[in-house]
Structures are given as C-alpha cells and as structure tokens.
Amino acid sequence: MAGRGRSGDRIEPSFSGRPARDDDEFSLDADDRIAGGRSQRRGGSTPPPKRAAPRRRREPREREGGGFFGFMRRMVYWCVVLFIWAGIGVAGLVVYYGSRMPSASTWAIPERPPNVKITAVDGSVIANRGATGGEALSLENMSPYIPEAVIAIEDRRFYSHFGVDPLGLGRAIVTNLAAGHMVQGGSTLTQQLAKNLFLSPERTLERKVQEVLLSLWLEQKYTKDQILAMYLNRVFFGSNAYGVEAASRRYFNKSARDVNLGEAAVLAGLLKAPSRLSPARDAEAANARAQLVLAAMREQGFITDSEVKTAMSQTPASAKSYWSGAGHYVADMVMDELPGLIGDVKEDVIVDTTIDKSLEKKAEQSLVDVLDKEGGKLDASQAALVSIDGTGAIRALVGGRDYATSQFNRAVKAKRQPGSSFKPFVYAAALEKGLTPYSVFNDAPIRIGDWTPENYEKKYNGEVTLATALAKSLNTVAAQLVMYDGPDQVIKLAHRLGIESELQPNASIALGTSEVSLMELTASYAAFMNGGYKATPHVIRRVTTAEGKVLYENTYDSPPRVLSEQIAAQMDAMMMGVIDNGTGKSAKIPGWQAAGKTGTTQNSRDALFVGFTSNLTTGVWFGNDDGKPMKKVTGGGLPAKAWKEFMIAAHKGLSPAPLFGNGQLIADPNNGQPMAEAAPGNGQTGGGQLGSGQPMTAEAPPSTIGGIISGVFGGSDNANRYPQAPVRRQAASSGNGPVPPADIAEGGGSGYQGVVPPGDVGGAQTTSSVQPRRTTLLDLIMGQ
What we know:
Pfam family, one: Transgly
Helix content: 25-40%
Distance between the termini: 174 Å
Number of strands: 20
Pathway: Cell wall biogenesis; peptidoglycan biosynthesis
Largest sheet: 5 strands, mixed
Protein name: Penicillin-binding protein
CATH class of the domain at 111-130 and 337-416 and 534-562 and 587-666: Alpha Beta
Radius of gyration: 48 Å
GO molecular function, one term: serine-type D-Ala-D-Ala carboxypeptidase activity
Keywords: Carboxypeptidase, Cell shape, Cell wall biogenesis/degradation, Glycosyltransferase, Hydrolase, Membrane, Multifunctional enzyme, Peptidoglycan synthesis, Protease, Transferase, Transmembrane, Transmembrane helix
C-alpha cells in the first residue's frame, strides 16, 4: 500500500510494478529516511528534491566488437582455426593413406611392356607390335615439337614445380568454378605419370593422396627430362596406341622423329580425351583442339606467329579408322612365329624380315585394281597373294583385300582346294617314274571306279603329249597320270617339294581336291624355278634386341635338293607352255620367260594362278570368304591378270633372264620311249641344261608305247560313252613303257587300296565282255 509523506504527497514505493525510470518526476534523496513507510525530512521546510541526472543508454552488446572490422577480425580468427584443423586433418589422411602403401624403399618404375619392331629388308618399319604399339624414344630422338606442345597445354610450369603445382591447382579451381563445370585439371605431368605407372584410374581420395606422394618421390628420384620422357612413352593416345611413337605411326603413318608442328599439336590435344578427340573419329574436333594447343605454345614462347600459321595448314584432315596396309598381315604372321623362335618376348626386339616394301605395295595394288575393276560384276570379293624368291624368302604377302576391314590372312591361314594348280606335282611324279614331256596319252572319257572326271570345256582332244595336256589342263590325262604311279607317290613328291597339309590318297587328288594354303603351294612351285631345291617359306631373317644382340638368325641358305635338275627343267618348259599357248595366256610378261599353272575349283568357288620367272614365284587366289561361287572366274582370268600386273611392276628395270634350262625341251632322244628313271636328288641328270631342241607341240606326236596301248584300248571312237568299270585284278608287271591309268577299288575314290591297272579310257564295253585286258607290251606281243 502507498504511504504518504508529511507534505501529503503520494510516494510510489521502489518495489512498484514497474522499475523506476530516469524521467520520473522525482526520486528519493540519498538523505531521505524511510521508516514505517514514511519519509522524514530535516527541518520544517525542505527545498524541493533535485532531479537526478539522466543515465546514458547502453549500446547493444554486439556493437562492442567494432562493427565491420570486428567481423573481419573474427573471420580471420576462425579461418586460422579452420586452417589449423584442416592441416591436422590432411596430415592425418596423408599418414593414414601413406601407411597403406608399400615401403618407399620398394618403389620402382614398372617395366614398360616390350615392343616388337618389324622392319623390311631396307630397314624401314613395317609395323610395331606389343601392348604399347611402338618403341620408346628418348627426348633427343623425338620431334622437339612434341614435348613443347604437351608442356604448353598440360603443365606449363613443369620445369619449376616440385611434382605438385599449387598455382596450377588454384587456377584450375577458379576456372572450373567460373565455368560451372570441369574444364581444367590441376594434375601435373608428374602426377599423371604416377597415376599411369602405379595407380588405378578410380577417382578416390586415397588414390589422390597416393598420387601426390608418388609424384614427390618421382621428382626426387628422376630428372625432369627423365620424367617427361617416361610420360611421353607411356601415355595413352587412343586407338590402342601407348606412347608418342605408337600414336604417330597410328595416326600419321610416320615415326615420332618426323612429326611436324601441326601433327605434334594434334597429339598433345589427344591427351585430354583420347577417344573423343581422335582424328580417326572426329577430325574437326581434333583440329579444333590442336588450335588451342598452338595458341598455348605461342603464349609460352615456344613458337612464333608465323609458325602458328604454318602449323594450321599441317594439321591432318583425318586419319584412317584402323591400322591399314598389307604390311600388317606380315606383322601378324611375324607375331605368330616369333614365340617359337625366341620364346616369350621380355624386352624390346627388332625383327628383320624378308619383305620388300615396294613389292608389298605393288602386290596390294594389283589385287585392289583387279577387284575394283572386275570383282563386282564377277562376284569376287576377296583375293590374296604370296611372292617368294628362290631361297623361300617371302618378298611380298597380301592376306586380303583390306586389312582394316578383315585381319584374317587368307594367304597363310586359309586352306582351299588348289584345283588344277596341283597338277604340276602329278606330272613331276610321272616324269620321275620315267615318262617324258613327249609321252602320249589319250584325252577321252575315263572312269576310275565311280569317278568320271571331265575336262573343263567338256571336249576331248584324242591323243596328246604330256606337254600339251598340261598346257591345256586336261583333266582326263591328269587322272590317268595319278594312277600311273599311284596317288601315294604324288603325295610324297608334293610333300618333298613343300606341301605340308595332309593330302588324301585318292584319284581325285589329280584335280587338286585336297586343301592346301596359298603360301605352301607357292613355295612348292619355287622348287621348279630354282632348279630343284626346296624353298622353305620364311619371313623372319633375324631377331635382335634393341642393343643389337642377335637372338635368332635363319638358316635357309643351304636348302636340300628335292627334284633333279632334269625334271625341274622339263617342268619349267612344260609350264612355260601354259602361259605361251595354254590356259594362262593372260599372264604373259613382255620380254620375260614365265611359267605357271592355272587352277579352278568346282563352280568357280576358287580361282588360282601360280607362276614364276627366274626371279620370283608368285601365287594369287581369288574367291569369297563364304565359298560363294564366282561367275565363271577361272585361274586364267582374274588371278592371271593380277599376277601379270604385279610381276610386271616387280620386274620393272630388271634385265630379262631365262628360266632354268632356258625353258626349252630337247628333241625326244628315246623317240617317245620313257627315259631312265631319275632318282630325286642325285643331281646326275645332264646338268640341267636341256639345250635348244624343238619345243614340244601336240601336232605329229612321236609314236610311243602309250600311243600303242591307247590304240589297243580304243581311241576317240565312242568317246562320248562311258564304259563300265572293269573287274578288279592284280597289276601286270612291265618294265618297258608307260602303263595307261589304272582303276581303283570298286567303291570309288574313297575305297582306294592301291594301283590296279588299267583304267578304261575311251572305247565302249558291255558288262558281258568284261575280261582281263592286255596292258603291257609283253602282253601285246604274246597275245595274252
């Protein structure tokens, strides 16, 4: 309750419902006495109370820090605190992730995967093979534009930082924040090398910490030039190319030693996105990136404005989509053979081959020319070529129309029926048995068991010499010859000359029904060319390490004799007739003696021509991978044309030289009788020079035992009727002359059990008149 003073004024107690304010009408004096709720004043009258001085209102507490400057002081304070704690945290992460790494004493640069450098006879590079695709080059050996371009666009402070570039990292962060997305990386070349050498590409904090630690170690252990060289020789450039040498050959078909400024800019530009910026995939994007590289090089002072203008015209418009060129068929072949020669490749090696690059290009061009001109209308889509010299060295090899489209080597790995191109082995076996090119056989319908071979033109010529029969590729005569000595003897001779594939011992082998590769067939023909020596096909001459240590060197310089000189010369002369007067006329080479043989399989599924001059033996195949028949393509057509184009180009500028034995046959010294049997390899058959006798023709053939027997068995009369197969009987013995071809077991070719003469050639016969025939001169004389 309120009390009253003596003056009667009402006094509000200090514990009223609100606090006393500075602007109250009055306040109690300090001398006032308050007792019993009353105010006692001294004296009877007192002066009016004094008004207290107003108090200063306090500022809010937050203003006491000093406003903006206080805010900045507090920001700096907390930044320092956060920085300290961040440093502690980073140090902890470094220690933690560093402890998960192997001991630094065990760190070592991993070995670069070995490269196989494959060279031609002139030392030029055919291809590089291996995980990297190219050999390692020192900075001194590569174009100086390459390291300059890479430094300018990837790490301009490479030679000044210690493995990590804080300024570059900061610049990258600012650039990326301004752009709103990742446009620039902050890793140095050393960091990129560390990642490529030791770490996985995953983006984790652990990997980044380890990358930094490894970068510091690299900078301490190696010089800047060594680090840059390692980087340039290992970094990925796309298209399976690792290192500048592989990339340069991949995109520009040249060594990194010869790269110009514009090409160096393209290579450096690839590092940002090897697949997306590949000139093989997007030439426009690759060139746009190259312009940025050139600008960076100009900014760093590596090049001048005039050089920039020149370089802009040097950037390639495009690159091929894959490794291309027939040389890569050779490279694949080398890689298939190399482990068998030196074992596993554990270091960089150089493989010197027998390939002549100029011949290789001519071979590829000849096939492409014929296919482009006539392949489409004749349904021929593929071709292959092998060219071998007299020692067996492969001078040119084309495994298909386009390596970029198909890497399958049709010259080496594909096995197909050779057709009539197998007949020279049949004829050579007959000559070894004692026949001569003048021996006469009857070209007429023939049945061997259930097999009735026909000539390609379904026409018959009656009595012909072996030389004429081979020139015209008469199937009936070849079938008779294979049975004269038996398929086994033909197979033995073919294997002796170089055929490695398994051959079926049946009568149809005369027409080339057993499959072989083009390479082994061509190499076997080389024995005819070189006078009877085996020509083992080989493409590797020597293998050395990068330091020059010889790991392998071939030993094909002393080949064995597989055919007598006389037989080789006779076969050369007979096969020369194939080109001069027979089925291979399209293969004539102006000014050169050439010999060869055509081959065509059933329904023109395969067509071949294999032939030779005194310098080269070359085989050509045309066909389709799926076995689809071509439109009446024979060995004397597309293959002979491609063979001629290649051989003319290969012999350009060379002086013509005759074939072994001068390509001539001597007059028949035995008047049609077989010569003494020549043992293969004895080398005692007249020195191989057959003189300058008259070439054999089909007109007025000399009288031979074969002719007598053919007359007895029936000539061209009733030639259109096939006689019944005779009853099987034992062969009659004879030592005087050729016995006409024999029948085989009643079951046909698959039931062949041995030679069972004679075969039915021409003539008609009824089943009721089947009886043992007189097959030898002795039989004829004795009337048996």
